[in-house]
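yo

u said u wanted the structure for the complex thing, so here. seqs first:
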Amino acid sequence: MLTERQLLILKVTVDDYIQSAQPVGSNQLSKKPGISYSSATIRNEMAELERMGFLEKTHTSSGRIPSEKGYRYYVDHLLTPRPLPQQDIVQLRSIFEEKLTETEEIIKRSAMILSELTNYTSILLGPDVRMHIVKKLSIVPLTENAAVAIIVTDSGHVENRVFSIPPGLNPSDIEKMANILNERLVGVSLNNLHLRLEQETLMILKQHVEHYGELFHTFRKAVLLPHEDENVFYGGKLNILKQPDFHDLQKIRNLMDVMEEAKHIPMILPVGSQGLHIRIGSENTLSAMEDCSVITVSYDIGEEQTGSIAIIGPKRMDYKRIVSILDLLSGDLSKELTRMFKGT
Amino acid sequence: MLTERQLLILKVTVDDYIQSAQPVGSNQLSKKPGISYSSATIRNEMAELERMGFLEKTHTSSGRIPSEKGYRYYVDHLLTPRPLPQQDIVQLRSIFEEKLTETEEIIKRSAMILSELTNYTSILLGPDVRMHIVKKLSIVPLTENAAVAIIVTDSGHVENRVFSIPPGLNPSDIEKMANILNERLVGVSLNNLHLRLEQETLMILKQHVEHYGELFHTFRKAVLLPHEDENVFYGGKLNILKQPDFHDLQKIRNLMDVMEEAKHIPMILPVGSQGLHIRIGSENTLSAMEDCSVITVSYDIGEEQTGSIAIIGPKRMDYKRIVSILDLLSGDLSKELTRMFKGT
DNA sequence: TGTTAGCACTCTAAGTACCCGAGTGCTAAT
DNA sequence: ATTAGCACTCGGGTACTTAGAGTGCTAACA
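structre next:
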């Protein structure tokens, strides 16, 4: 159990280190406003805090820096979110100023503003496209042997894919197929599309369309594989280079690599979870991120769909500020996107 | 005028420096196969080459490195492109192995392979969308007051934009509008779209559609502003971090910043020009790139459309290799994309 | 008994001195 | 014209010193 004084010292130490990036010494601390103990007392307490694992030294006679456990305790118990300065609020709200008509545009813009505001890297995940519902489906022939399939969803998202047409196919067959697909697939979520395709739709096609076999096959292939990375938006990818915490080029490379690699995204942004989460250093599953902290938060669109936001910075991240910013933004985004989506 | 021996020494010096990234000394050079002069002779020649501005020293008693003028001369007169190793050819050709159906996919893949092959950063510009010709145009209503406009071009490219509908509009009006737009705009290039829209199409709309005013306005706005950065593809953005030439974090940041900023793209990739170009160091207009060399090449799709490829590396770039690679790729890309586009 | 002043000790960072080796320019011999 | 030889230069590594900030511990103090 920590005493009041220890709590105070831990908090001030972490705050100071977050701000200065320099190990904090007892002398330095004792001079801070709000601290009325001598450096000797603080030395004793810091030694104790180190014994308990909350602080660390970079070398035997250096000042202290927070350990991961220290950050964790700070984040869990000592974080008093202060209200955001008006200027930050204005900047955040500017996302919605120019009336953007597309979810994607708004998310892109959010990523940008977030990175500007925080000086860290932001990753935003749009709502899961697979939950979207087919509004319209069309097939536009391009040449003798290629056509483009277009799927419009209720959110205004448009998926399109070029696929090849078996040679010598009757153009009217394509039209017939498009009609049947529309009849059968409008109202279905992208998620369930392939199921529906294979079940009822195939049967009906068989009855009405010649050469349905090959046509169906290439179409199905085209529609099924999703553009998976299309839904991830970055802001301030280069902000890592601004952080004094990162100087090792090798590590920076690894980190940036990991962040861009689509396959790692689920590790960074836990897709299912609600609310705000903080992962500190080695709490991150990816070893390239062991020197980073990640704050994630989810937002809602309508009742069912959710997206998520992540801010990636050094462990010595300004947790207070970022939490406030993300709280505000996730609320605003939810409100705005839901409104847009519902079409009011 | 340079003597034979000076040419030889310049060439070997540049080659060696490109390979080793270390200043080249006279002793070192004299031991190279193909060099039969003593180090003293070479010293004299190098001093002469320095006086003429082809070589530089990093400090008074160091070996020589090529100056920009040196690289320029090397590139203009001493570049003997050697045939690519079989392995590289195989890797390049692998771009077309899996039958991708979309131009965009092929270009993306090219960017990736290029960066892997060269260890530099690649930027590929797709064919100018504005030259594409409208194949089909549709409007899909989403809610009471929003619809998505979709334009399919002859190349299979799909542009889509959500736009708002004035409240209380008759849905049949939208359909009418879509029909009229289709009648009038199919066959027009995206380039000329706004002209056509404003000239004839507006008149006809006026005659047939109620509330054409607001509807037309928002639609026009939506269709006109292009997604400009949509057509640029990167490979190996992080490869800069691999180059020993770049260690200054500040410079790296500047450079990466410039490369990603869409507005700088025209400065890097000269859109109009045909064939292969090399820009060395300060020959680049952007000051952030004064330590880089850029090799660009254009490729063709059909008879009219062109795209371009850029490889960005240190001035100490492996010009020989890159030129060979780009020569091969631009040819292949032209062939393949033209084939696809013509639909054979 | 909790707090603090004092002190010896430790370690980093910065500065200085030093040498080694690779390289140069120049001169004189071939 | 070429080259061997030599004095000189300079960067980079190693070793040593010093200043300053910080620590732990002990003993005095309220």
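Residues 258 and 264 of chain B are 6 Å apart (CA to CA). Chain B touches chain A at residues 101-102, 135-136, 138, 140, 142-146, 148, 150, 152, 154-156, 158, 160-164, 222, 237-238, 241-242, 247, 249, 252-253, 256-257, 260, 340, 342-343 (CB under 8 Å).
cya
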